[in-house]
Amino acid sequence: MMDNYGTPSLALERGEGAYVWDTDGNRYLDLLTGIAVNALGHAHPAIVEAVTRQISTIGHTSNLYVNEPALALAERLLDLSGVDGDGRVFFCNSGAEANEAALKMSRRTGRTKIVATDGAFHGRTMGALSLTGQPGKKTPFEPLVPGVVHIPFGDVDALEAAIDDDTAAFFVEPIQGEQGVVVPPAGYLQAARAITQQHGALLVLDEVQTGIGRLGTWFAFQQAGIVPDVMTLAKGIGGGLPLGATIGFGDAAHLFEPGHHGTTFGGNPVCCAAALAVLDTIAAEGLLEHASAVGKEIATGVEALGHPQISGVRGAGLLLGITLREAVSAKAAAAAQQAGYLINPIQPDVIRLAPPLVLDEADAHRFVADLPSFFAKIDATEES
Ligand code: PMP
User: Fold this and answer.
1) Residue 228 and residue 139: Cα distance in Å, rounded?
2) pTM flag (> 0.90)
3) CA-CA distances (angstroms) from residue 296 to 80, 114, 171, 212, 382?
4) Do residues 74 and 128 lie in contact, with contact meaning Cβ atoms separated by under 8 Å?
5) Helix, strand, coil percentages, rounded to 5, for the chain
6) Which of 285, 354, 263 minimizes the C-alpha distance to 47?
7) Strands 12-16 and 202-206: what pairing?
């Protein structure tokens, strides 16, 4: 493989629930789950059954035809959104692709300017990268798509100043996962909704990381009590299989016309069958409430440690950022790995947790209790 990801720290061989095993047979509690992916944990029987049934019935159909799992999934997503009126779904294979589709939909408004936020992560393809607000990831690939303006995340005044009547869309994440689980001030999404509406610009919510139950509701926008024009999804939706979705609500449902956009595997029945199993199981097992409750227990538990290295916990549901007073997250994650936990040093001073929604309370408590030992190990190494 090309050296895109640096030196891997583990080779994983199998998983079950919230646990994974490496090729040497060591077990880890997976508090990252493929970066906010496996809502149901690893090897969930509902996904195994749905995928097996579907691949042995019909595995791929091409977009010249339609298939039942894709139709059912589109309908289910619209239903779970709770949004009245028109809604239409475009299926693709990843978060970047879901945002590419949203970007092309934005161009269909006849306007060219796009507003996005500093620190945002929307993917690595050229369009999605142009929306991304992390300069280090972008500069090696310039020039990018023109017309994208970046403003500080969470800043309503900056949005008001940047947006005008030539603005096609404002792209924003409800919580910036890759920037270190950065939560905007209360009222931000509501203000973004009002400002975009005022200028006839689309509000595009990138829910690739926050959607499908991660924050304890099906979608983050439901917590804000707003409706976006466009929502993008990926990661958790496919239960470990590659699937992305771009959903247009209201007039935005009709921005694409036949021939405008497409992809070979989009709406692949196997991925859609897996996604239906994810949604069914989240509902049947009460995993939204569970994610909310366990997330709160982790947050209050970590805060209650009163550990001198920990400055706070932010996020919602099971997307949490533990903020540190020093840039030691990579060392803490290495110590955690040795102790049998996979955690993510997303920023030098932020540890991200995005465990499966099925994470049980006992495992959550065990992690919180062991957290100080990871920092102790760093201190011990530095002293010796
Ligand atoms: N948007 C957000 C908010 C993300 O977190 C990510 C992935 N980290 C992406 C888009 C890109 O998704 P993918 O890697 O599936 O292209």
Assistant:
1) 30
2) yes
3) 24, 36, 28, 18, 33
4) no
5) 40, 20, 40
6) 285
7) unpaired
Q: What is the pLDDT of residues 118-161, one digit of tens each?
A: 999 999 999 999 999 999 999 999 999 999 999 999 999 999 99
Q: What's the pLDDT score for residue 62?
A: 87
Distance CA 237, CA 253 (A): 20
C-alpha–C-alpha distance, residues 135 and 125, integer Å: 14
Looking at ligand 1, which atom is closest to the CA of residue 35?
Answer: 8
Q: Are 373 and 336 in contact (CB under 8 A)?
A: no
Q: How many angstroms separate the alpha carbon of residue 202 from the centre of ligand 1? A: 20
Ligand 1 atom showing the smallest separation from residue 207 Cα: 3
The protein residue with its alpha carbon nearest to ligand 1, atom 12, reads 95
For 12-43+286-383, which CATH class? Answer: alpha beta
Catalogue the active-site residues. 121, 206, 235
Q: Has 306 been labeled as part of a binding site?
A: no
Between the CA of 94 and the centroid of ligand 1 the distance, in Å, is 7
Pocket residues: Cβ below 6 A from ligand 1: 35, 94-96, 99, 121-123, 173, 177-178, 206, 208-209, 234
Q: Which residues pair with 14 in a beta bridge?
A: 21
Strand duo 19-22 + 319-324: pairing: unpaired
Domain 47-284 CATH (choose: 3.40.640.10, 3.40.50.2300, 3.30.160.20, 3.40.50.1370): 3.40.640.10
Q: Is 24 annotated as a binding residue?
A: no
Instruction: Give 108 Cα–ligand 1 centroid separation in angstroms.
Output: 23
The span from the CA of 298 to the CA of 355, in Å, is 11
**What residues does each domain of the chain span?**
12-43+286-383, 47-284
Q: Dump pLDDT digits (tens) for 73-123.
A: 999 999 999 999 999 999 999 999 999 999 999 999 999 999 999 999 999
- Nearest by Cα to 4 from 117, 137, 159: 137
